[in-house]
Amino acid sequence: MINSVITGISDVAANVRKIDFKWDQKLLPGQFIMLWYPGVGEIPMSISHLGDPKSITVKAYGTVSSKIMELGKGDRLYFRGPLGNGFNVRGKKRLLIGGGSGMASLHPMIERGVHGIVAGRTSADLIFLDEFDQDRVLAASDDGSSGFKGTALDALKTLDPESFDSIYVCGPEAMMFGIMKHLAGKNVYVEFSLERSMKCGIGVCDSCSIDGNQICTQGPVFSLESVMKMREFGLTRLTTSGKRIRF
Amino acid sequence: MNSERLRTEICGIKLDNPLILASGILDENGYTMARILREGAAAVVTKSIGSDERTGYMPPVVSPGDGYLLNAIGLTNPGIDNYGEEIAIAREVGKPVIGSIFGKDAEEFSTLAGKMESFGVSALELNLSCPHVKGFGSEIGSDPDAVEEIVNEVKRAVSIPVFAKLSPNVTDIVQIAKAAEAADALVLINTIRGMAIDVFARKPSLTNVYGGLSGRAIKPVGVRLVYEVKKETGRTIIGVGGISCAQDVLEYVMAGSSCVELGTVLMEEGKGIFSKVSTELSILLDQLGFDNISDAVGVAISK
Question: Could you report the predicted ipTM of this complex, rounded to two decimals?
Fold first, then answer.
């Protein structure tokens, strides 16, 4: 277990907080850590900022994330990592599509000239919107409280996907499933960052597996081609007990 | 790669090689078990399944170290009635699937055994390392009377082979092995009790505080218990505990195992380990002059 002192904290959106910490480690965008609050629990967490200091962007969601939100500057973060494979950043004209907190794992790829679709339920769920070039980003909210009224897929449909060299997607699986179907057969390189109930983080417990792939060690990033071959993607998954359910 | 040298069988179940996926590692999802069978495992043992759905412990459920893994998953399982679909998916590959079950007493084990058999598994593995309801902190597998009753009842309930997976956390393993006399084979060993503390956090590393130790570090313990039980009882044994290469397999075989299970090694080597060890083992057997793996069973035991 690695531990590191928190060097800064800032609020990003309602109930969303950026936590900075020192970690001398080379990372790829899309890689993650298993973040431990001692005595409470451990959750997977994307690294949202890969520079120095590094940062995670936490949303109060469950028991562990709520406790992490209570931490202050000078407190310690405990974690295992880096875990996962990360995105392959390629091509000149890139599009990032993030749904809700999925935007955090895409954040390291935001730079001048990169295009974005930032989606969420309401305007309060849209994170990092202002970090894109404002003429290159579309906001989409289910309730229309910010930008486009509709889903990430609805927003994507207003663009020509083949005008991009590469597209990177992270968000709820139902959202990504729709985007996969829309982009299938199009002439553009696409990667998805998948999320499943994750426990061990080291590829042994089988909790986060999809079609025999362990998302924690072989993922979380998979190409459009490999995702299209998966029989479980977007259709069925195991709950935290291992019970198979349909989406 | 499967050579004739590696072809063997356990209680009448034909195996392409002596390497089986151990229970508790990558065996919750049918698609994962199918993948591991396609990547070269001769058979897989499922995650231990009980009567009721259990979420298990809150992570951290593992504490990995150099050459070992400490885990306390908490018998996570969907409940027997929700598990048939996973077995069906795994069985599509056409290789043996062994159903692992856990329960609190003989009656529960028997009910689970019957249901597992109806899903089409080739054999049952009884996980006897679950907590003992009567004895605080102890395991069912440390009580010879409980072991005897469970194994006898399960044998009466099903017609497929029954393997009893014994706990190493006992004073006299031979006594427990004898108590499990009705079993068709013994599986040795389950994890060894352990724990770890994070000194910066001043807290146990696992949510459950106590865990089970597996991985390379426990191999000498497993080899010793296999050897002792084989020497004293002559029973058919499946060896498990810290195997990571062909030499380890042969060590367990020479101590008295007919075949072996691999688990924690997948943490470091991934799913390709089965075909890798098969290839190495075939070469090693050739070098040592064994025509078949079964010729090496128990050869190290002094008379």
Answer: 0.94
